[in-house]
Specification:
globular; nine-stranded mixed β-sheet; two-stranded antiparallel sheet; alpha/beta; 14% strand
């Protein structure tokens, strides 16, 4: 009875918790205020606590047309938050633009030193944060793949069918997918600038957000003073090139030899060998080669996680595939909920889709070290399945601009390689500067390392238009992994065995107790 009561109590607690989370989620959904019209703002005072200090803020809702300029379009509501500067006469505000696509634009915690002289404003991304959210449960299920390889033709066909089904379902429900493009996002930001009463604003963007910033500068240059971009993504580069990915792996290999010497294992050869003949399981755990490659690519974004990838591959090359099994399993836990997939496909397709391009063949060359697994996954399934509502050609290419712009990249950034900002975007900036930080990865590395240098870089740029990078020092790459996937995998297996043995022992004890009770009843 005690065990049964305990199980019932635990189940009730879980049900109550799930209900509370669902209730909280529903109540957090942004709603269109009664009687609202397009291009209206509703604000109330609120506060934000940062590093133990309370900041005055304004929180509220923006109401826009689902398709700007179309009086017959549906209305949508987006959240807005303005954290006020501590200055009595602040300079131009900073509008923040998060990466993605498919990620919220409402979770940025601004450094306190930015708030000393600027309001910081966050506007929700349409399709993610607002009253209309492009959720795609079909994609979340299909992205796990079928038949043991998430990048096989069968898996990509299945994912493509899910992409098509989600788009059709959304449109059948009344969503106008033509309204979910970067130019419409820019219109949201520009309308918010006007409704908040700002003459000019600064931008702080990262990753996908840098594309929004670029198009903002093309569409409304008179509204912008300065634009700082971290992890810069010029036109065309939502598609990752397998040749560039492999060249970055080779750059890592050069740094690897600098740390360990020429006698160290050949990093490139090990990765290529494992990816060519990857085992399909370790112990009883399946290994999906497509999932391993996709997780490897994502972890190579940052200097702290890249060594874990190389360690797992080198272990596999020596016959221990436990790390690969853990990476394969992690994919199923992370990838389905990693993004609001409808918004992801809407934004990506509208900006960089090229009709007639054979993405599957191009993204999976036979001689690749790693190739481009994420491009194969996404662009191998999207063409012909998501409606091609592309933005105007003038915004799908680099154009000249006079907006003062700072480009910041890392030399080992797999997501937004530095050479594209330097070679393709910088020449078009009449007032542009480009800073490449050696051995830094994607945007998380920018926020994680050398904080004093980062502060000086951004504050000098926003204050004067000239970025001062003099505090940056060379930070060599360290390939010693903070955690080892093979070790974690074995620990998890050991814990699972211990739990299983414990359950078997508990069941045996309960069985023996029950038998004694039955025997006692018979004897009495």
């Amino acid at each position: 009875m005690k065990l049964r009561s305990l199980i019932i109590i635990v189940l009730l607690i879980l049900i109550i918790l799930a209900g509370w989370l669902m209730f909280k989620s529903l109540n957090n959904r942004v709603r269109i205020p009664d009687g609202a019209h397009a291009d209206e703002i509703f604000l109330t005072p609120c506060s934000e606590r940062i590093n133990g200090k309370k900041y005055d803020a304004d929180c509220g809702t923006l109401v826009f047309s689902e398709l700007h300029g179309n009086a017959d379009a549906n209305l949508i509501a987006l959240p807005v938050k303005r954290i006020r500067s501590t200055s009595s006469s602040p300079a131009e505000p900073i509008f923040y633009l998060e990466g993605g696509p498919g990620s919220s634009n409402m979770h940025f915690t601004p450094p306190t030193w930015l708030l000393e002289n600027h309001d910081v404003v966050m506007i929700g991304y349409r399709g993610v944060d607002g009253s209309s959210k492009l959720d795609c449960a079909e994609i979340s299920r299909a992205i796990k793949g079928i038949n043991g390889d998430s990048l096989s033709k069968e898996s990509l066909d299945n994912l493509g069918a899910a992409v098509k089904a989600c788009a059709a379902r959304l449109e059948d429900s009344g969503v106008n997918l033509q309204g979910y493009t970067i130019t419409e996002v820019v219109e949201d930001m520009e309308s918010a600038r006007r409704l908040l009463g700002y003459e000019k604003i600064n931008l702080l963007s990262q990753s996908y957000g840098t594309r929004v910033a670029q198009i903002y500068a093309y569409m409304y240059p008179q509204s912008l003073l300065r634009s700082a971009m971290v992890g810069v993504n010029p036109p065309g580069h939502f598609v990752w090139s397998p040749e560039v990915v492999d060249s970055q792996v080779m750059y890592y290999a050069d740094l690897w030899r600098q740390q360990f010497g020429s006698s160290a294992p050949d990093l490139v050869a090990a990765m290529q060998s494992v990816n060519t003949s990857m085992p399909d399981h370790w112990l009883f755990l399946p290994i999906d080669p497509g999932k391993v490659k996709s997780v490897a690519f994502a972890l190579l974004y940052h200097r702290t996680t890249a060594p874990m990838v190389f360690d797992a591959y080198l272990s596999a090359a020596k016959g221990d595939a436990s790390g690969l099994a853990l990476m394969s399993a992690a994919y199923d836990l992370i990838m389905p909920k990693m993004s609001v997939w409808g918004e992801f496909f809407a934004i990506g397709s509208s900006a960089d889709y090229e009709a007639g391009r054979d993405y599957r063949t191009e993204m999976d060359p036979s001689n690749a070290v790693l190739g481009s697994p994420m491009s194969l996954l996404i662009w191998g399934s999207a063409p012909g399945n998501w409606p091609p509502y592309v933005i105007a050609d003038e915004y799908r290419q680099v154009s000249p601009t006079d907006v003062e712009t700072l480009l910041i990249n890392g030399s080992v950034d797999f997501s937004t390689p530095a050479q594209f900002a330097e070679e393709e975007l910088l020449p078009s900036l009449n007032n542009g500067q480009c800073i490449t930080i050696a051995e830094q990865g994607h945007v998380s590395d920018f926020w994680a390392f050398q904080p004093e240098a980062r502060q000086l870089l951004l504050t000098s740029f926003y204050d004067t238009g000239k970025a001062d990078d003099s505090l940056y020092q060379y930070l060599p790459m360290d390939f010693t992994p903070k955690m080892r996937f093979p070790v974690i995998a074995k620990i998890l297996i050991a814990l699972s065995v211990i739990v299983l043995i414990g359950l078997i022992f508990l069941m045996w004890r309960l069985f023996r107790r029950k038998n004694r009770q039955v025997k006692s009843q018979i004897e009495s």
